[in-house]
Task: inverse folding
């Protein structure tokens, strides 16, 4: 509760400072609008913002789901197969040396202006953190447990199922939380590069028409969406996997 | 599973790592149905010998052989209990006890499991998680897991090392009583425990392993038995002389 009060106070003071600073310095509204005019723009365009938000949310959720599943499959493959480790690991690391932003135009070129290129963008951006976090967890299962499993004559498959995967759940959760923060970035970058829908598109549009207040309104909407998504996912992970997390 | 008769085990040979000789001339006769103790100062490689017998990976090489008197493989009828209870933190005590069955994918009798949990006195705690238990209770759970495995050979790697003295007494009695009829190899650095529990005692040295005369059955001896203290004293002297 105390934390909530602190957060609210912090943001309130930022907004008050901002409002005062703009009123005093009086820059043109297309450079920096007041928080009040942003709020007005938000109200006036709420339907517009809502429609574009839905598109972005759908992109994020699809991207997140597929990205997490792909990341998990990759991590499991890396864990069970030495060959996969030899082939995939260098590829994965190499892929991380290219900024995902740099291939956004290519994705738009190949996959079009629709939702697909944004989903793929989100997948690309979250795939590695999920893979890496989950695989770290799997491969760091304490040797003592595995020794015990060996004296118990456990099969590899069952050791994976009952020891390695449960042990790696906290790492996987960190990966998924990270992914929930990155996925909106991926989707919005995709929208910036080329689209006709979504919050990223709305920002570019508002920017082009010097509607800076609308741009800020979209920006805050995106921020709130991202934070809500992160909070929701953290909460869901916490309640569904608590026995693996508290240990 | 498991045959009901416990085998005896002979280990003969030399053990070396890449850089040094751990045991130049190791001769152990682990007799059936009784406790054999490996004594030695910390870091000498007592646990390594257990790992060799259990067929676990080690950093050493054994030039020699490990054999049972019934000529059957050893590593698949061994269970292992260490100072660290090795309980799985995300599983309940009950699930920890039957971990082996689960890892082998075999069915087991819940009744038998409950009997074992009852025997180690954890009935009220069977639905709890390891972090909710005290050190002594956790070690009881590890014992229950070992009993559930019901293997003819049991390797004990200082299982009482981390317990306070009261808990340790209870745990020693319970463990000794419940492992009756099994071939037990017990690693410790405590000569008192060795004297109380073991019919054969080996003091490990780099060059030579010395077999030591022990007390006569029945075991376990009581904590305050005078003979135990005498033996403890001479064992201590022996270990000291090995070190220098």
Result:
């Amino acid at each position: 509760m105390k934390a909530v009060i602190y957060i609210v106070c912090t943001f309130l003071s930022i907004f008050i400072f901002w409002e005062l600073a703009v009123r005093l310095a009086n820059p043109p509204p297309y450079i920096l609008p007041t928080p009040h005019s942003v709020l007005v723009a938000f109200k006036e365009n709420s339907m517009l913002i809502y429609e574009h938000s839905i598109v972005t949310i759908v992109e994020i959720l699809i991207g997140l789901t597929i990205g997490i599943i792909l990341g998990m499959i990759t991590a499991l493959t890396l864990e069970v197969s030495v060959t996969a480790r030899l082939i995939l690991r260098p590829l994965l690391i190499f892929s991380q040396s290219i900024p995902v932003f740099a291939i956004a135009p290519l994705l738009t070129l190949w996959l079009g202006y629709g939702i697909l290129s944004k989903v793929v963008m989100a997948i690309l951006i979250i795939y590695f953190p999920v893979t890496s976090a989950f695989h770290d967890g799997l491969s760091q299962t304490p040797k003592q447990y595995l020794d015990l499993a060996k004296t118990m004559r456990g099969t590899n498959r069952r050791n994976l199922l009952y020891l390695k995967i449960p042990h790696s759940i906290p790492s996987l959760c960190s990966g998924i939380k990270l992914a929930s923060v990155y996925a909106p970035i991926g989707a919005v970058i995709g929208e910036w590069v080329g689209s006709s829908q979504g919050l990223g598109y709305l920002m570019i549009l508002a920017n082009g028409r010097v509607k800076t207040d609308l741009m800020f309104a979209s920006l805050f909407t995106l921020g709130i969406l991202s934070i809500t998504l992160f909070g929701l996912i953290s909460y869901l992970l916490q309640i569904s996997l608590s026995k693996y997390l508290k240990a | 599973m498991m045959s009901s008769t416990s085998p005896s085990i002979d280990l003969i040979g030399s053990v070396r790592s890449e850089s040094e000789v751990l045991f130049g001339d190791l001769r152990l006769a682990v007799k059936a149905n009784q406790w054999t103790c490996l004594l030695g100062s910390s870091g000498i490689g007592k646990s390594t010998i257990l790992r060799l017998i259990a067929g676990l990976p080690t950093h050493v090489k054994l030039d020699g052989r490990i054999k049972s008197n019934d000529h059957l493989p050893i590593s698949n009828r061994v269970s292992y209990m260490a100072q660290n209870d090795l309980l799985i933190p995300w599983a309940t005590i009950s699930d920890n006890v039957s971990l082996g069955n689960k890892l082998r994918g075999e069915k087991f009798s819940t009744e038998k499991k409950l009997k074992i949990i009852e025997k180690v006195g954890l009935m009220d705690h069977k639905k709890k998680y390891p972090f909710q238990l005290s050190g002594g209770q956790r070690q009881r759970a590890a014992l229950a897991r070992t009993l559930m495995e019901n293997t003819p050979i049991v390797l004990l790697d200082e299982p009482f090392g981390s317990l306070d003295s009261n808990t340790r007494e209870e745990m020693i009695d319970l463990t000794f009583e419940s492992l009756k009829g099994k071939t037990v190899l017990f690693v410790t650095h405590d000569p008192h425990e060795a004297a109380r529990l073991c019919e054969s005692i080996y003091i490990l040295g780099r060059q030579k392993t010395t077999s030591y005369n022990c007390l006569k059955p029945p075991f376990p001896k009581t904590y305050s038995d005078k003979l135990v203290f005498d033996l403890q004293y001479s064992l201590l002297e022996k270990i000291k002389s090995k070190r220098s």
Q: What stands out?
A: The CA atoms of residues 152 and 226 of chain A lie 46 Å apart.
